[in-house]
Amino acid sequence: MAGAVFATRAGSAPDWRIPVLVYHRFAPTVVDSMTVRTASFENQLSVIRNRGLRVTPMGDLIARLQKPDALRDAKIISITADDGHRSVYSAMSPILAQARWPFTLFIYPSAISNASYALTWAQLREMHGSGLAAIGSHTFWHPNFKQEKKRLSPEAYRKFVQVQLVKSKQVLEQQLSTRVDWLAWPFGIYDDELIRMAEDAGYTAAFTIERRLVSPSDRMMALPRFLMTDADVGARFERLIGCS
Ligand SMILES: [Zn+2]
Q1: Does pTM top 0.85 for this prediction?
Q2: 214 alpha carbon to ligand 1 midpoint, in Å?
Q3: Residues whose CB is under 5 A from ligand 1 (ion)?
């Protein structure tokens, strides 16, 4: 599967497109572009419900992507959140738990139980233990790989990337007693070399923040997601996820 593009019939148009959403922070008011008000989040979830989309666990989506025939006419969507902000625990998780809708958290472990804005390990264990939250890696401390590549020698850069990919996976697996097979690229930055290194570190799928639906032409190590903003509500959100 290394860097594989999903098999498609030659010359045929993709016959499925799947939305994957990525959130960051939730608050009663919009304090920055990465914050979604809980009222807007609930509006987005009601659109998903009213349009008959099923919120599928990431494990199910990844498994289906390996057998793209299983995706024809699939009305599914996946929900993710990057960075491990505390409002994921206080605002997002309770709302999704009410609907019993699964979600995936991409975490950079250096912040957990450490940075004031970040989740604690206890909160992560609780969400993961509920069976609704799957865990992915967002590297160890969320570096900008483009900047690091300019700053470091080629050898030091490769070592740096390897530590970021491997240490994050190891710490998350150990702290949460789970397997961590998926990665979200920090700032959406990736290239062929980074993809090779992520595969070597044992990741089987990785996510970007390219603003489009997942389709058969996407690589498993560069799956697009919609970075959700507070403005993505109502008809605009319906268009975004391919429902209008
Ligand atoms: Zn991030």
Answers
A1: yes
A2: 19
A3: 82-83
